[in-house]
Amino acid sequence: MNFSSLLEEIIFFFSFVPWIIRLAIGFIVFNLLVFLALFFSTYFLIRKKKRQEAHYLAYEKAYKDAIHKVLANANVLSASSILDRFETQFGRLTSVKYEEINNALIDLVTADPKLYSCNNYTPLIDGLKIKKYLERKLDFSKTANRLKAMKQLSSLKITVSDSKILPFTFSKNTPIRKGARTAYVVISNNNPFKFFELSDNQMNEWDQINLLQQLELHHKGNLPNFSNWIKYSKDPSQIIFSVRAIAHFRQQGATEGLLQLLATDNHMIREEVIRAMASLRITDGEDKLKEIYSSQPRKCQVAIIEALAQIYSMRSLDFFVDTLRITTNAELKKVLLEAIYSYGIAGREVFNNLLLTAKDFDLIILNHIKHPLNKSKFSDLNNRLSPGKEVFDYAPLEQPSPLSLL
Amino acid sequence: MFIHYFESAVFFYSTAIILLSLLLGTFALVKTRNFKLYNHKSDDEDLLRSHLTPGISIVAPAFNEELTIIENVNSLLTLNYPLFEVIIINDGSTDNTLKLLIEQFELEETAYAYIERIKTTPFKRIFKSSNPRYSHLTIVDKVNGGTKADASNAGINASQYPYFLCTDVDCILDRDTMLKMIKPILNSKSRTIAVGATLRMSNSCDIQEGRITRVRPPRSLIPRFQELEYLRSYLFGKLGWSFLNCVPNVSGGLGLFEKEVAINAGGYDGTSHAEDMDLLTKMVTYMINSNLVYKVEYIPVSCCWTEGPPTLKILARQRIRWATGLTQIFVVHRKILFNAKYKKLGLVVFPIIFIFEFLAPIVELLGLIIFFYLCFLGKINWDYALFIFLYTYTFSIVISTLVLFIDNLVKRQYKSFGEVMKLWVLVLIEPFIYHPLSIFFSIYGYIKFFILKDIKWGTMTRQGFEIKPEIQNSNA
């Protein structure tokens, strides 16, 4: 039977079967084609990933050793000699090898940021033409690779001209735009903070984490004054970021701006401002915080109590006690009592007196707070603000006032 | 006449399922592509270093888990996250679960201001470790409430961070689970109230010091079927639905939730047998009623390995409970079904689950009965029947193959293509062995709920994890 007669037979069969069966046969053919495509795609995908992983595993140590040798060299090496070394050892640098070398280099500089300042760091980047390779990826590749290139540029602290990155900072593709703006802070030589001026610079929590990280890693010595943006920015998320940055980088000069911002209608911004006041230990705002306490939503009330305890001026104990007297909410009571407990000798005395008279659940709260195995809300807060160490050196209990520390 | 209409109805029913599946498959692929596109390996490092990363409380109820409790708690304590606590709820265990915990982790009874924001059976006491190594471990001891939901609520009450990750104590979590799951919450324009991730079977995997060191497809047939079923459910169903923000359920085995919303929604229903779907339904309802914009996300990463029921008896117990749970959901939340007030929940999620999940076993059973009846009468057109059968059979193969493709696209879990094939082979026999069993268990669950009125939680008998010989030797 030849092909045309087979085809005729199929058409003949089709013309007599009900339409439901025709539909079913159509789907069966479709299913078989999709199945074959997926099955072989899975096979080739696994094979490709397996090879890539094996290749990187085999060469990772060699790449890192070669990079180390260059960076550890006391003499400044020429770009061409570095390229020769790598090409002799690894052959011509293909895009696969570039990716592997970049990853190895990023691993090294992330583990030891001092490597950025090695004499041979710039010659290494120039010699291996990493900048050129990444710029090419920015120009000609798909979104995922562009994003990856931006990440790699900022991780390697490679500055590029504005013409390469600026077009992406206004892209309609949100992840590209955000990625480019975050990268721009690191890789632009011109005006890295220009996007803080824009009104459309919305930032979610992830953007803030990323940006703060970049500022921490690459701009700690030349930070802008963030209080400018808390005054002029219209976007709440950008104001929140600026307030957080002020607190994180301890910009004491921003006190006035923060106190003004306390009057904002947005309670999320207000909560952040109160937390920043705590971080900076702004004693000037204490009375204002007490004044607004009763009209605040719960989150801001908790933030105020924690802030007053952290500011630790020894002028808030009465406020804590008075507030405790009128508070019925168990969680607020717990925060207030923790604040009292951590408030120096005077606070400890009040706490012990309460312990003598407290009953039922109040007594349980007091016992909870003084139990050494229960973590204090305040020590936890301190750890959050600066992982691994206390942010403030709280004055020892023997000292009547820690104001002298300021 | 009835049979003629039934046949046509079933054809359109299955065609609707196929079209819906095509849509879901496309959405799942788009979600996977986006996940790969916008997630970078350095993201985890950024989260670890940042002081803005929010704290997470891991809530894991334990009832008679003496066989695996120590290894599992150790596993939870070694997770990679900058700010977290592990809360184990001893739900009135009658074995040595609590005693083992006290001895192993140097626990002391601690005064604790337990605020009961969600009602549970009586709370007894809190234990904390005097060893600083375990400073982020808390054990809540309470009276048995009969359900996991009740125990989870006690854990939520004792938690201190704004998000809680609900898991089963027998689950082994990937070390970076929390880093992966918090990312969609942080990287979102709207408020993400829950995040789910993929669960797999831990049976036959290599486990060392509470960590999965080598992923293998389960050797026994029943867990292997479940591995395939789970992958399909997560990487196809839930992932696809998350594209439309219509995730019906974040698994009880692994789900990250915003605490405030969960508490305001009333927490888990202590009497529910589908407590995970119940909680999400209530959380979404709360957000809709409060006119708040919300999102429920799913990530295609395998983050959790759980011991699948190794025998048919235990599988039956689990599936019957799931079926009674699903029925309970539709009875308790009946006002949501086809109700425009509940937007996508009332017009998309609930109707689709009701029509294509709840009714499916009934339709399939009816179909089988009519098929055998027609066989008996000799009224089957076998030529056409073969095409109709191949129509659905080949489609089920396509869906399962797509799922295995997505799984490997995200991350190569198995070492070789051969291991993937071991799982794939089951795709061919699943409709004849495993699927009929699932139908039977579901129907039995419905009967238990509506006719026998017999609703019990039941226990899952654990075998414990296989310890490799060299580890046994070193312990000896």
TrEMBL record, chain A:
InterPro entries reported for this sequence: ARM-like, ARM-type_fold
Residue intervals passing through the bilayer: 20-46
Q: Which UniProt keywords apply?
A: Membrane, Transmembrane, Transmembrane helix
At the top level, the lineage of the source is Bacteria
Q: Does the keyword Transmembrane helix apply?
A: yes
Q: What is this protein called?
A: HEAT repeat domain-containing protein
TrEMBL record, chain B:
Q: Which Gene3D superfamilies match?
A: Spore Coat Polysaccharide Biosynthesis Protein SpsA, Chain A
Domain Glycosyltransferase 2-like: from-to ranges? 57-189, 242-395
The UniProt keywords, alphabetically, are: Glycosyltransferase, Membrane, Transferase, Transmembrane, Transmembrane helix
Which residue spans traverse the membrane?
Answer: 12-30, 345-374, 386-410, 422-447
Do you know which InterPro entries this protein is assigned to?
Glyco_trans_2-like, Nucleotide-diphossugar_trans
The similarity annotation says: Belongs to the glycosyltransferase 2 family.
Q: What is this protein called?
A: Glycosyltransferase family 2 protein
- Taxonomic lineage: Bacteria, Pseudomonadati, Bacteroidota, Sphingobacteriia, Sphingobacteriales
